[in-house]
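Tutorial handout. Part one gives the primary structure; part two gives the three-dimensional structure as tokens.
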Amino acid sequence: MAARASNLVIVKSNCQVLFSLPIDDIYLGRSDASRDIFPHLDLMSDGALEAGVSRHHATIYQSDDQLFVKDMDSANGTFLNSQRIDPHQPYLLNKGDKLQLGTLQLLVEFGTLKKE
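Part two.
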């Protein structure tokens, strides 16, 4: 029996963000204080506005020990391994998947943070 991963690691702009599993919904997007929008993974410092990332772009959630991503009807789309995904439909996330919000690229890993 394979050991289950205990963490979700999202690699973005040469840094890594760790979320301990199990998780509730993780909202990905860009913050907007004037509208009181503060996603769990704020991509503003990664050029989100210029890359076409919506304020509430996508959601990652866990169900039955698997992780899924859903586009939240973003303006510029969410791509999983270069394929645009349909809004509000769940797509399974696997280790090494490339997730793209607008033109901003992220990498999905499981396990622990890697030392650089």
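Part three, for discussion. The chain has one helix and eleven strands. The domain at 7-110 is CATH 2.60.200.20 (Tumour Suppressor Smad4).
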